[in-house]
Amino acid sequence: MFNRQDYVYQSSDPKGDEGFGKVFAIVICFVFFLGALQVAYETVSGWYQNFVQWAATCWLFWPAFGRSDSSGPPGARDGVIAEGGPEHGKSPANSANLA
Predict the structure, then answer these.
(1) Is 75 within 8 Å of 82 (Cβ atoms)?
(2) For labeling, which of 9, 42, 69, 85 is most exposed (least CB within 10 Å)?
(3) What is the pLDDT of residues 14-64, one digit of tens each?
(4) Where are the domains of the chain?
(5) 86: which residues sit within 8 A by CB, 6+ positions away?
(6) Model confidence over 54-77: pLDDT tens digits?
(7) Is 82 helix (H, G, I), strand (E, B) or coil?
(8) Cα–Cα distance for residue pair 44/50, rounded to 1 Å
């Protein structure tokens, strides 16, 4: 009486599979591109930070940078540090009020 067969329809869509493969490949390539971009950014950022640190170190020890004479630390004249510094018992905050 009920001689009915159940069918399982299996459809293969080669165009759909091809489209999915292309989209998946594009996503993978985009992720690789973002990874390469991150590596490049971190490399350039590291170079920049190292250069800034090196330049600051060189600037601190460069003789006569920004001064007409090369005697002593910045702010020194003829080897004598100006009054108002911690060498004379005055804090930098108080020496600003003296001027």
Answers:
(1) yes
(2) 9
(3) 777 888 899 999 999 999 999 999 999 999 999 999 999 998 888 777 665
(4) 17-62, 67-99
(5) 92
(6) 988 887 776 655 555 555 555 555
(7) coil
(8) 10
